[in-house]
Specification:
heterodimer, A: 257 residues, alpha/beta, Rossmann fold, six-stranded mixed β-sheet, four-stranded antiparallel β-sheet, 8 helices, B: 444 residues, 2 domains, ten-stranded mixed β-sheet, 11 helices, globular
Amino acid sequence: MSAPLLVIQDLHAKVAGEDLEILNGVDLTVEHGQVHALMGPNGSGKSTLAKVIAGHPGYEVTKGEILLNGEALLDLEPDERSRAGVFLAFQYPAEVPGVSIANFLRTAMNARVGDEDEMDIFAFQERLTEKMELLKVDEGFASRYLNDGFSGGEKKRNEVLQMAVLEPALAVLDETDSGLDIDALKIVANGVNTLSSEDASLGVLLITHYQRILTYINADHVHVMIGGRIVESAGPELANKLEAKGYDWLHQAAATV
Amino acid sequence: MNNTTAAARTDAVLPKWNFAQFASELTEPAPLTSARKAAWKRYSELPFPTRKVEEWRYTDISTIDFELLTPAIRTEEIDEELPADVREILSQSGDRAGVVVYQDGCVVHVELDQVLADAGVILCSLAQAAENHPELLQQALFETRPSTAEEKLWTLHLAILSGGYLLHVPPGVELPAPIHTFNTLKTPGLLTSTHSLIMMEKSARAAVIEEFISEDLDEQTVSLHGASVHCKDSAGIEYVTVQQYGRGVAHFSTQHTVAHHNAKSITFNVGLGADLSRADVTSRLLGPGSDSEMLALWFGDAQQHFDHHTLQHHKAPHAHSDLLFKGALTDKASSVFRGLIQVDVGAQLTDAYQTNRNLLLSEGSHATALPNLEIEADDVRCSHGATIGQVDNTQLFYLMSRGLTQRQAERLLVFGFFDEVLGRLPMAGVRERIRGAIEEKIGL
């Protein structure tokens, strides 16, 4: 039996240079092919977990482990984690004027294969076109500068397009639904669904504040994070319960732990 | 000691500058020789600029002993064939209207599209120009008055001129593709001096791209370069230099652009190579409605030093000038930008801008930015600004999270930083050639 895709064990983390821990012992396992939703109120540590998985230099892990396919992730630099199969869809993707999406993705692909067998420009273009068709993205999109002047919806579509091209093993979607109107949300959700049906072993960790994206993306498991720990885990029905009852009942549960 | 070696290598003997002997070995039209002699006389009276001179404060040339170098002697051995290395580059570039090739400072090949030649366009070596159009040389080149700080190297440039060309575009003629020139250096220890003389008559249009190329050279080698670009009423020029010399070379380029009524000039200097590279770029707006765009990019690594001095001189009212110089540095590289917008008394309604931005990729790199205004008219719009900054960490993390190494991410950000300037070049073919040269240097 192969190792699970992602194992997080007793993870503690804080903002680098500060004392207060934001993550207080997170345990989570994602198997290949599963979709996990991580929900919780603002400030519960959800986005911090996403950034720590991706290796954001602004956070410091004080205790615990993260394993990807059984390999320790925490020793790796952000770029090494990406090449190992981690993909973070950012809540606020950076704007990079002057660098086109196509040029950026080609550099990212070449970083994966190394200098010796640099990807042929035509092979790359073919792959990019294929993924853009798959996600129904306009032809001109890839020649635009990376997130430069993009609307919220365009930024999130761009994240999903990058994910499609880079074909990660694990996709962490950090509040990908926030700030989107319902049409944009549907487009992004369809994109994620398309990619997980294309790659049956893709694992998804979907971080969200709202239940509504789960109407469009089916989660196998739903977790609730409060105060830097996961306080409740269940099936998709948990999301509905949260929608009806809010997080307050879990706050009490968290306090008694 | 050095001197003897240098003297032994070629016949062009200038032991501590025996100019009379140097001049006696030249076979060229008399006006050229007498202009050299006048320049030499002036040169001999001037001291070499030291760091005590404000314009040379950040660039030390005292380590270069110019008078121990071997001056390239002007030869007139024109080859009908395009040299193989140049043919290779041209095969990867777009269309062209003409080509000039220098080897070690001497013109070895000139070609011009026959249709354009028939239309009256002139593209020829300066020696030929001195023979056939001495008046053009006189007014456009020899009467140029450099600034005091430039004068020493300018007079040296004229005195030892080893090669050059004249491009003359008659009224109303538009070149459909750029003139492409190659200044290639092969012999270490040389001092070359080349000049580009560009005359655009009324409503004429052209683009010129000049490449400066060499391998790394194991002895100090110096390239002096000058450009005189004249735009008559409503003429337009796009003048681009791409300096990609190897290590061991020092490059000094002095460029003067003049724009008359409604003329539009674009100058674009790309600095990638050499140990030391200095560009003095002056744009004079002589006619109302004239427009000058001055652009530059440089990327320095190791211990490279890039020095830029600019002047936007508004002598006429209703003229516009816009300067954008951007540099990125890594390792222990350094750069200087010193720019001046000068607006004369009568130059009302001047519109002039000056921006210098620097991106530092390493702790050991260093940029100096000195923008300046000198305004004597009272109804003008002028602004200047300079920034020196580092790579944005949010962008860096974003790119690295997609698998780019830190180095790749930084280089891609440099590319993005440069794009704003590249985007200002109208000719796509020229833009692509520059992009390729930058890509090669920064190694994406």
